[in-house]
Amino acid sequence: MSKVAIIGCETYHYGTVKAAVERGIALLGGVDIFAKRGERILLKPNLLSASPPERCVTTHPSLFKAVAEIFIAGGARVSYGDSPAIGSTAGAAKKAGLQAVAEELNIECADFKTGVDIFFEGGRQNRKFVIAKGVLNSDGVVSLPKLKTHGLEKFTGCVKNQFGCIPGVLKGEYHVKLPDAWDFGKMLVDLNRFISPRLYIMDGIEAMEGNGPRSGRPRRMNMLLFSSDPVALDATVLRLIGLNPEYVPTIKFGSEFGAGTHNEEEIELVGDTCDDFKIPDFDIDRTPAATRAEGGFARFIGNRLVSKPVIVEEQCVTCGICVKMCPANPKAVNWFDGDTSRPPTYNYDTCIRCYCCQEVCPEGAITLKAPVIRKLLGSLIG
Q: What's the pTM value of the predicted model, to 2 decimals?
């Protein structure tokens, strides 16, 4: 039986957050269950980009501070780190407010630049990874995901948070090799199984709905969630927002690969009443994650079923980040005739639908447009 603690928390006021975190960890058995005195514990927040806390892109500094203080008080040697989609760990941490907390508590920023090749014998799909040295130098990881929507995987929570343990631009290579959302989800599950964080604490006080994981809208959910089972925690959140866990690759394969369980009868909910946190109108695509067909006619049909990224020209500031981050070769989004004064354009024939462009756009100028036939099929699926 997997235990998930749901703790109501209506503000990021530090005292309130600290009390909520203490309660949540206590319901799972206490900090001593997750770290012995003297162990090196890495805190892995979501630092997708250099964004301020109020944007709800990153893990909030109040949660980061509360967790750090509790583990330090328990005798652990705490460090932190993540590999943002763009920019440096230090730059993202500074903007997100985590660097100031780290300096106050004398927490070291772990090495997330240096990658180390590893072989994961237990991998079901992926057995080779390049993992940040800071992760491998720790005795254990505590994952601090942010509750957000995601273009490719539909939802980014506990399981997907470990993708930031792959350094920098190497993450783009996985999108090229695994353009299908379901195959990409299998990779994320294998990665999570290798890193195997000891504890997951999800920041759901203010979540992100809509055009996530960077350009959506903040949505107050007033809760923190705790578990040692990432699949059970993610599946619990999906039920709260009305999305079938079977439609999300990281949850479906997380359960199948033994990373946890998404079955309600195998999850024990503790803490506050689950029904108090249900948001049935949470803005998220409730159809199954799309499968991208490969080759010839199959790709032709597939590209007319899978959502495509579209630039909203009046919002575009021609920064070129989408062009820089596109992992396709040749690039699927690029400057028209080299003109950087106008918004870039797409070549959908080479687009692998990884949505890296949409994920990193700092202006929210890239949205995902579902084809008409996909919308019709979605309404039939329910």
A: 0.94
